[in-house]
Amino acid sequence: MTWETVIGLETHAQLSTAAKIFSGASTAFGAAPNSQAAAVDLALPGVLPVLNRGAVERAIRFGLAVGATIHRRSVFARKNYFYPDLPKGYQISQFEIPVVVGGSIGILSPSRGEMRVNLTRAHLEEDAGKSLHEDFHGMSGIDLNRAGTPLLEIVTEPDMRSADEAVAYARALHALVRWIGICDGNMQEGSFRCDANVSVRRTGATTLGTRCEIKNLNSFRFMQEAIDHEVRRQIELIEDGGTVVQETRLYDPDRRETRSMRSKEDAQDYRYFPDPDLPPLMIDEAWIDRVRGEMPELPEAMQARWRTAYALPAADAQALTASRELAAYFEVAARTAGGEARIVANWVLGDLAAALNRGGVEIAHAAVSANALAGLIRRIGDGTISGRIAKDVFEAMWQGEATGDDAADVIIARKGLRQIADVGAIEKIVDDALAANAAIVAEYKAGKEKAFNSLVGKVMAASKGKANPAQVNAILKQKLG
Amino acid sequence: MALTLADVARIAHLARLDIDATEAQAVHAKLESIFALIDALDTVDTAGVEPMAHAQDTAMPLRDDVVTETDQHALFQRGAPAVTDGLYLVPRVVE
Amino acid sequence: MPGIDGTVAELVAALRAKEISSVELTRAVLGRIEAAQPAINAFISVDAEGALAQATAADAALARGDAPGLAGIPIAHKDVLMTAGLRTTCGSRMLADFVAPYDAHVVTGLREAGTVLVGKTNMDEFAMGSSNESSYFGPVRNPWNPAYVPGGSSGGSAAAVAARLVPAASGTDTGGSIRQPASFTGICGMKPTYGVCSRYGLVAYASSLDTPGVFARTAQDCGLILNAMAGHDRRDATSLARPREDYTRDLAQPLAGLRIGLPSAYFDDGVDADVAHAVDDALRAFRALGATTVAVELPNVGLSVPVYYVLASAEASSNLSRFDGVRYGHRAAHYTDLVDMYKKSRAEGFGAEVKRRILTGTYVLSHGYYDAYYLKAQKVRRLIAGDFARAYAQCDVLMGPVTPGTAYRLGEKIDDPVQMYLGDIFTIAGNLTGTPGISVPCGFDQRGLPIGLLIQGPAFAEAKLLNVAHRFQQATDWHARAPQGVA
């Protein structure tokens, strides 16, 4: 019996406004407890919400970025429930008429290739505060600094069929919201939080299985692990003759499993109704047009352009649009380097990415600028250095041995790394190497093909890597007859 | 739509109001008379009528995205039932 | 010299003429409040010290000649409006010790106009009630006869003005909570158009209906106070961005040609004979002033009460969720866990009427009932608004009794909420439609209790309503009569 997994994601993206969605309090992270909880955030008696234009504008930007419908009239509703981190006893959200409906995001599925994940909706709402469970004499502490931070809740259709696809979507969405500048994407601080609705069904079934909602997926790795675990749990449960109960489950990264959230067991009845404090949100054509005019080129458009203009593979194009900064870096490097953009892509996604990773450095602060990297790649293209030597030059550039757009040339000259172009000089080194390694030559002649590579290595070492490997190959072949 | 005693217990829980059996009986009787009044709405034909949520037909005014508030937690917490280190204290929250 | 019993307009003139100082006036007012408190219980808090300080400042400004329009006039605020540094209880145990950290918008307006805030008036708990018997601080009594209720929910403000304790007071009106107590106590009470006065700092009962307004003895005074209360407030998304206006500008306009609509529903058998006679007499007076009357139909207005009890209760159930014993207000002393803390704190903090409305509202919003109750009520609300729009195409104002009967005895209706609810049958539509209305004294019943005439108009007709009421008061003297024992 084979099983199919069905996943839909709900993402809460904190919008990068200066002030909260319904008050003038700051949204900055990490302030002293309740120092950023204004009267409105605390739900003091008599206070009223007033919607932040910046939050709406970010929702419009998102809607445009995913090709969604932006409702010209949307409505805020109250979702009623009691919880200490919810000061009003209700959350102001959007229910029947959200600001954004539809749209889709393209992803590269490891199993199904390029595909689109359809969005159901994206709506504006306010974040809750935080309950701190350290022991305050058996009590919990409530910090309402986060209460009222604007959220865009982005809900997908149940379009994903594996944890890999869910992660690919989450990464694409994460890149997109940062790309269009509506969310800082900081998952540690909770700026980008995903919940996954997971169900399984027998392959070929047309109806959905009972789903569980997994909360607390605050990294892509946890998302992968949690979904994989949850899928296994559900399949085992059903195969053992049990049934899946619809519930909310929390991922515990330490135990690598999901567990039922008791606090959510209480059957919820949110008693939604339109918030009488807030008239309908009206968004006119002019506003949408202005936001459209200010939109940067979007990652999907950029990927398509590069795939055509530069013949980049889909995976590379996707990886290079992980952020606007990375994409801009690549674009500058590719334009300056000329020639094969695919080589530039390999450098950016290879050595550069590795160096950034090692140092934990953001692309914006890369020690090697796009122009400098292009300068290096040009020297490979024109035969000044080999790809092998280029890696050393890159390392030297990264260590700051030379800066500026011509850093590669400076280092090549200073260290004398220019490739040996003179055939006579190479022949001399080859002859010396053959003479010094008679045993290996004998092995080769006895039919041991591997010995040839060993000889190439000896020659390259003798040239201190400056010989052109292709030339060395050719001359060796010719000499060994 | 008859409101039962069980409904009273359910909505009292939803509304987080402690209510004992005797009280529930009394409340139930009063709510029944209130709903007898409210049920007059059943007789009205409202087909095609747009619900009216607000007294005035206006659009949402918007505030600029500017921080205007300062830290006033000392003032706001002056009358709080239980506070430690700037945090409001509540019986332990179980997740 | 008008002395303490002067109207706002008279006192403004006397203060400017230095015939009386604000400190003298305020001392006299504080003395009267203290004397009347045991019998009437109109106040929850009195701020003698603060009032005298404000009066001193007002006198200084008057002496300098840069005093704002209402400088030195003592007023009281309903205890549902936030007043910085003063206890604001909403008539509830829940907020019995709550000190407001900020001023409501209308409080700020009246402060800036120079008024002297002497105290906070008693009210039905969280403005839910029509008799002022649901206050945690005890019932308010009608100055005309202490065995009778003053009406509610703004009963304390109405009684304070009727007993000549203050010349004017604020109130709030969600289903009739200004107009009905004004009627029961023989004074003017005005509920403006929804959105004209900001709700910021008004502790919400039913947000789509709550309207701050004013009590005074004359229409002119209502206009003067409203001038200081009204105005756009960016902190209230339902506050209307309209140019400021002088609501007293048309007071003196003649009424010749005024078309008065008489809704048949307001003149049926349910209205007490004394009330019907007084209203008929008032209409005769208006005809004598040159007005004409026309019969109009409001086919759905009879549904106002059920619509109101669905919508107001639903909104209240949500609005009052913030009173959870976490950040302010009452927290039970004993509980087992978080949910129990919520339940006990709320059960102890709220009175019976508030709990009933929370439960009613929770039920109508709960799963499976929303469409049948809440959505249905919103649709009928639309039908009622349509009725009024059609009526105003035929007339300038609507008139009728404020309530079917006059004030009743304390305790008479307390066990029959539906009977009490039905007393608001004529006023509720003004809240559902968001339109203005004023209650004007127009007579007394056989027991000597006041009767009020309800004058309603389309949105933003405040100046017109005040004009109509003012001309009526020029032609009658009902408003000049004071309860016994009042100077």
Instruction: State Rg of chain A.
Output: 29 Å
Low-confidence stretches of chain C: none
CATH superfamily of one domain in chain C: Amidase signature (AS) domain
The CA-CA distance between the termini of chain C, in Å, is 15 Å
Largest interface: B-C, 56 and 73 residues
Total number of helices of chain A: 15
Dominant shape of chain C: globular
| Portion in strands of chain C | 5-15%
Helix content of chain A: 25-40%
Instruction: Summarize model confidence as the mean pLDDT of chain A.
Output: 93
How are the SSEs ordered, and which strands pair?
The complex is a heterotrimer of chains A (481), B (95) and C (487).
Chain A lengths: L2 E12 L36 E2 H13 L3 E2 L2 E2 L1 E5 L9 E5 L5 E2 L2 E6 L3 E14 L3 E7 L2 E5 L6 E7 L6 H17 L12 E11 L9 E6 L2 H20 L7 E6 L4 E4 L12 E2 L6 E2 L2 H9 L5 H11 L4 H7 L3 H14 L3 H19 L10 H12 L5 H12 L8 H9 L7 H14 L1 H8 L4 H13 L6 H12 L1
Parallel strand pairs in A: 14-15
Antiparallel strand pairs in A: 1-12, 1-13, 3-7, 4-18, 5-6, 5-17, 7-9, 8-9, 9-12, 10-11, 13-14, 15-16
Helix pairs in contact in A: 1-4, 2-3, 5-6, 6-8, 7-8, 7-9, 9-10, 10-11, 12-14, 12-15, 13-14, 14-15
Chain B lengths: L4 H10 L6 H18 L23 E2 L9 H4 L6 E2 L2 E5 L4
Antiparallel strand pairs in B: 2-3
Chain C lengths: L7 H9 L5 H19 L2 E4 L1 H17 L9 E5 L26 H8 L3 E6 L33 H8 L5 E6 L5 H7 L2 E4 L19 E6 L2 H11 L29 E5 L9 H16 L3 E5 L7 H16 L18 H12 L2 H14 L4 H23 L4 E5 L15 H6 L5 H6 L3 E8 L5 E7 L5 H14 L12
Parallel strand pairs in C: 2-3, 2-4, 7-8, 7-9
Antiparallel strand pairs in C: 1-3, 4-6, 5-6, 5-10, 9-11, 10-11
Helix pairs in contact in C: 2-3, 5-6, 7-15, 9-11, 9-12
Structural features:
heterotrimer, A: 481 residues, Arc Repressor Mutant, subunit A, 10-stranded mixed β-sheet, 15 helices, 21% strand, B: 95 residues, alpha+beta, Histone, subunit A, two-stranded antiparallel ribbon, 9% strand
Compact summary:
The complex is a heterotrimer of chains A (481), B (95) and C (487). By secondary structure, chain B is α+β, with helices and mostly antiparallel strands.
